[in-house]
Amino acid sequence: MADATHDFSKHKKTYTAVGIALFVFTAVTVAVGLVPWFDIGPPGPDGADFVLGLAVAATKASFVALIFMHLNHEKGLIYKLLLFTFLFFLGLMVLTIFADHDPIREQYDTLETTRGWLTDKPEKP
Amino acid sequence: MEIPYEVTPRRDTGLYNAKLGVWLFLASEVMLFGGLFSAYVFLRLGVQDGVDNPWPWGVSVHKSYVWLGAINTLVLIASSVGVVFAWVALKERNWRKYQLYMYFVVSCALVFMCIKSVEYHSKLYKHHGIKLVDNSVMEGVIVDGSDRIRFTGEKLVIGLQGALPAVLKDLKGDAFPKFTVTEGPEGTVGEEIASASAFKAWFAKNRRAFYAKLADERQRFRAEKASGVENPKPVSAASSVTLTAAEPFSVAGRPRKILLHNATALNYRDGVKVEGKLVSDDILFEVHEVDLQLVLPTKQRESVVWNVIGDEHAKQHFFTLQAKKYQELAEYYKDRGGVIPEKQLRGRFLNVQYVHVAADGHGEEHGKDDKHAAVHTSEPKPTAGGGESEGHHGPSKVIAVPFDQVKFFGNHGPRYGNYYAIYFTMTALHGLHVVGGALVLLFFVVFGKKLYLKNPEHLANRVEVGGLFWHFVDLIWIFLFPIMYLL
Amino acid sequence: MSAATADQHAEAHDHHDPFWKKYIFSTDHKVIGLQYGFTSLLFLAFGFFLMMVMRWSIAYPDRAVPVLSDWPWFQAWLDDGGKVTGDLYNMFGAMHGTIMVFLGIVPLAFGAFGNYVTPLQIGAPDMAFPRLNMASYWLYLLGGALMFVSFFLPSGAAKAGWTNYSPLATTTDLHYGDLFWTGQTQWLVAMALLISSSLLGAVNFICTIINLRCKGMTWMRLPFFVWAMLVTGFLLLLAFPPLEVAAIMQLMDRLAGTSFFVPTGLNVSGMSFDAAGGGSPLLYQHLFWFLAHPEVYVLILPAIAIVAEIIPCNTRKPLWGYKTMVYAVMVLGFLAFIVWAHHMYITGMGPAISTFFQTTTVLISVPSVILVSSLLISMWGGSIRFNVPMLFATAFIPMFGIGGLTGLPLAFSLPDLHLHDTYYVIGHFHYVVAPGTIFGLFAGIYHWFPKITGRYMSTKLGHLHFWPSLLFMNGIFGPMMIQGMAGFHRRAFDGGKAYEQISSQVFAEPNSFLANLAEKLHIIEPDAAFRMIDLNIVTSGSAWLLAVFQVPFIINLFLSPFFGKKTNSDNPWEATTLDWATPTPPPHGNFASEPVAYRGPYEYSVPGAVRDFIPQSETDPALIVGSEHDPEPEEGNSLASHH
C-alpha cells in the first residue's frame, strides 16, 4: 500500500470518524446502565438492558475489527480462519446452556421449596 | 536461503508472515477470552437464587466504578485511534508524527493502568463484607488488621515431615522470638533458634535427618521381618518438636491458615499448634449496608445481623426502605397482572438496603437527628437498582463482630464471590495484555529509528501488527466494560 | 548434492556460530526439532518409570518397592513396610498422564517431527518465526522443569489425576503454608507455560505452512504429513486456550481463594470449606475436555502422518486416496471440537445432551476409519520393503485399529456407565497412544535418522526392539481390556485386591491351557484358577520387560550416529518428497538452491518411468517420463481454490 500515499488523507478521515462514533457509543452504553429512560421493564436492571448493552458493544467491536484492524481490506484467508474461530467460540458458548442443568445443584431444588420462597412474601408495612 | 515474505505480502494469501502470525495468535486469544466469557455466562446463569451468593446486578455494585470504567473505555478507544494514526504517519514516512502518536498511545496505556489500580485499591482495601451464620450479609469496612486472630504464644509444636510452618509469616513484632527446643528427636533438644533464617536452616536440616532416620528404621524393620523375627520392633522416628519461647510472642493468625482456635491454643491447617493465650478474635467493622437476599422474608426481622449491629434504629431504617421499594414494585406490577414476580421479591432491589449505625447518641433521639433526616431523603433512585447510597453521613460506629457469628468474610477481592472472581480474573488478564502491548509498542518507538532508516516498510508492518493486537485488547474491553460494570 | 559437500557446508557454518549458539540457543528449526526430540524422549522415559512403580504396587500390593524403598526422599510416600501408599500412587498416576501427554508425546510428535520435517517438506528455508520457535522450546523446557521439580516439594507433585478435576484438585494440599510451592499449584503454573509454548508453536507451524510453501507447492501437492501438521496446529491453536482459562481459574481458586469451581456448601474432610461458593465443578470439566478431546487427535494425527509418509515410500506405490485423506483429516479436525462431552456421560448431563455427543462421537469415527483404511489399501499389491520403519508403520495400523474400535462402546452413554473409569478405558486409549502413536513415532525416528545423521540405524537392533515391543505392548494393554470389562477400577492402588468379588473372578479355569501357561510363568500357584487379579502380574511383567527391550533402541539411537552404516546418497529410501532433496544433514537454510515442486508428493512406480520414484523437484527429462510435469509452476494456489 506504500504506493497509495495519496489515499491516506481519506483513511485519516475515516479513522477520526470511527473514533468519534466509538466515543458516542460508549456514552450510549453508560446511559443504558444509568439513565432511567433506557430502563425498559421493571425498576432495576434486567434482561432487556443486557441485550441493549451487548448490542451496542457488538456494534463498537465490529467497527474496531473492520476499520481499525483493516479487516475490510483483507483477502479471504483471514475470513476463513476467523470463521472457524467463531464457530468454535460458539461451541464454547454452548457450554453455558449446561449451566441450567447442573445436576450437582439440582439437589438444592428440594431445599428451595422447603424453604418456602414461593409462599413467603415480605410483610406489608 | 532467506526466509521469504518477511516484509512483502505473499501474492496468493495477501499476507506477510507477521500479519498472518498475529491473526492466528488473535484467533487463539479469541478462544482464551471466549473461555472466560463462557465461564462468566455459565456462572451467572448457574446462580441458584436463595442458595448461592447473588450476582450483583447492574450498577448497584458501585456507581463510582462505572465512571472509572467509562473513562477507561474512552482512553482505550483514543489509544486505538492513536495507533492507526501512527501507522499512517509511518506510511507517509513522517517519523516525528509517528513518535508523537506512539507516545500518546503508550501514555494512554499508562493512564488506563493507573485508573485500574485506583479501582483495584478501592475494592481490595475500602470495601469488605461479612456473612453471618444465618447468611445475612453486612457490607462495610473492616478496621485494619482486626480480621486476624490475635494471640499470645508461648510454645510452638511443629512436625518435621511437612513444609515450612505457615505460622512463621504470622509472627508479629520486631524481633524473632528466641526459641529453645524442649522436646524433639534425639540430639535436637536444647538447640536454640534466634532468627527466621536460622529457623529455616534448622528445619531443613532436621527434616532431612528425620527422613534419613525413617529410611534406616524401615530398612531395619523389613530386614527383621524378612529374617523371621516375630513382632519386630515397630518403626519409630520422632518428628514432633516443641519449641518454647524465652518470652511470650504475639501472633496475628490469618484465618484462612487456621483450622481451629480456642482460649489456649491456635491450630494451623498444616498441623502446627501454638500454645498460649487468645487476645481477641472479634472483627471490628463499620457497617454501611445490610444484605438479606439469602434470608427468608419471614425470618428477616429476627436475623442475627440485628443482634450483631445492636442498633434498633438501623433496623427500622432498613425495613422502612424495604417497604418503600415494595410499594414501588407493587405499583409497577399493578397494571401488569398485579403479581410481583418471585425473582423480584428475592432480589437485590428489596433486600439490600443502606443502614447507618451512628457513632454517637443513637437510640431515641437518633431519629430526630438532622443529619439523619437528610440521609432518609437522599435515598437512591429506584432505577439505580439497589439500596446503594454514596458517601457517609456522619461518623459511623465501629461494631465488634464476634468470631463465632461469622460464616465468611473478606474484602471485595476475588474471594468474595463469583462476580468478583471473574471480574478480577478477566480485568487482570486484560491488564496484562495492555501492559504487554504497551511495552511492545514502546519498543517500536524507542528502538525503531534504526529499522526506520533501513526499511521503513518493515517498521510500518511491525506497527500494523502491534496495532492489530492493540485493537484486539481494545475490543475485549469494549465487551468487558458493559458486562462487568453496567449490566 | 553429495554428503561430502554438505559436510563442507556445515563446517563453513561452524566458523560463524559458537557451540552454544548453534546447539543450545539455536533458531534453526532442525536443531530445535532435535532439542524437542531429546527432551521429550527423556520425559517419555521418566513417565515410563513412574508407570513401572505404579505397576509394582498393582501387581504386588503387599511387597516393598525394590530399590526405591531405601531412598530417604521417598520415605514420605511409603509405608513402614516399604510399600507404595495411595498418595504416591495418585501422584505418580497423575504425573504419568501429564508427562506422557504434555511433555512426552505432543512435543515429540508435533515439536520434534513437525519442526524437523515440515519446513523441509514444503521447501522452506526455516520456520516463519525462528526466534519464536526457540522461545516455544524454552517455554516447554521451563514448564517441564517445573513439573519435574514439583516431585521434590514437601507436598509432592500433583495428585488429583491428569485431568485435575475440581473440587478435588482445588482442595488438595491446601494445608501447606506456602500454597504456591505445592505440587498441585505447580502443575497449573507448568501447564500455563506448556500451553503458551504450544500456542506459539501452533502459530508458527500454521504460518509456515500457509506462507512459506516453495514455488509450485500447491495445496494438493503438500505431502500428507504437512496436512496433518496444519490440522494439528489448528487443534492446538483453538483448543488449548480454554484449558489455559481453566488453569488460570483453578490457580485463582487455589491462590486467591475464589470459588470458580467450588460449589456452595462444599464440605472437605467433614468441615465446611472456607470459600464463597457458587462455582461449578462441571464448568472445569467442560473447559478441560474442550481441550483434551482435540488433544487426543493432536496425539494421533502426527503418528498417522508419519505412517502415511513411510508406507508409500516402502510399498513403492502412491498413497491411496490422498485427497480423501486430506478431506478426512480436515473433517476430523473440525469434529474433534464437538465431541468433548462424551468424557462426561456419568456427570448426569441428561439424555438430550448425551445423545448429541453420542452422535458426533460416532460421526468422528468415519474420518478416522477413512484414514486407516486408506493406509491399509495403500499396501495392497505393493512390493513391500520390510525395513524397521516399515515394520513399526505396519504394526501401527492394527494397533491403532484396536484402540479405535474399543472406543466405540465408550462412545455410547449406556455401556459407558459400566466401563467408565475402569481398566477398559485405560486399555482403550493406551492402545491408541502407546502401540499406536509411539510406534508411529518410532517408525519416524528410524525413517528420518539417515537424513539427520547420514547413517542408518542398525537393523538388527531395530528388530530386537520391534518384535518384543509389539509383544509386550499387547501383553500390557490386552489384559486391561478383560479386567476392565470385569469391573476393575483404574484408581485402585492395590490393583483391586480390596474388592474380593471383583478380583476373585476367574479368567481361566484350573489346568486349562492359559492356566497352565501362567503356571509355567510362575504367575499362579500350581492347580489354582487363573483369576482376574492375576492378570495384574501379566500386565506388570509385560511393562517391565517392555522397558528392558527399549535398551536396544537407546543403544541404537546413541551409537548409530557414530558407528551406523553410512548412507550412499541424500535420498537413501528413494523417496519423493522434498525433505529428501536436501543435503545430508541439511545445513542451516536447508536447501542448496531454491527448491521447486513440479508434481504431487507420491509419484511412485509411474508407468513407463525409468525409476520407480520421481521426486517432486526432479527436472531431468529422462527421469520424468510418464509423470505430470508442470514446467513453470505458480507460487501456489490460494487456499480458496481447494477449500
Strand order of the largest sheet of chain C: 1-2
Shape of chain C: globular
Please give the largest β-sheet of chain C. Answer: 2 strands, antiparallel
Class from secondary-structure proportions of chain A: mainly alpha
Give helix and strand order of chain A, one letter per element, not per position: HHHH
Please name the two chains that share the biggest interface, counting residues whose Cβ lies under 8 Å from a Cβ on the partner chain.
Answer: B-C, 78 and 79 residues
Key terms:
heterotrimer, B: Four Helix Bundle (Hemerythrin (Met), subunit A), 3 domains, six-stranded antiparallel beta sheet, C: mainly alpha, Cytochrome C Oxidase, Chain A, two-stranded antiparallel sheet, 58% helix, disordered N terminus, disordered C terminus
Give the SSE layout.
The complex is a heterotrimer of chains A (125), B (487) and C (643).
Chain A: H1 8-34, H2 47-68, H3 76-94, H4 103-114
Chain B: H1 17-45, H2 63-91, H3 95-125, E1 128-132, E2 137-142, E3 149-159, E4 179-183, E5 192-193, H4 196-226, E6 240-253, E7 258-261, E8 265-268, E9 273-280, E10 283-291, H5 304-309, H6 312-334, H7 342-346, H8 348-351, E11 352-354, H9 370-377, E12 398-401, E13 406-411, H10 418-446, H11 449-454, H12 456-486
Chain C: H1 3-14, H2 19-24, H3 29-59, H4 86-121, H5 130-149, H6 168-171, H7 183-211, H8 224-255, E1 267-268, E2 271-272, H9 281-315, H10 322-335, H11 351-379, H12 388-405, H13 408-411, H14 413-419, H15 423-453, H16 459-486, H17 500-503, E3 506-508, H18 513-520, E4 530-531, H19 535-548, H20 551-563
Helix pairs in contact in C: 3-4, 3-5, 3-19, 4-5, 4-7, 4-8, 4-9, 4-15, 5-7, 7-8, 8-9, 8-10, 9-11, 9-12, 9-15, 10-11, 11-12, 12-15, 12-16, 15-16, 16-19, 16-20
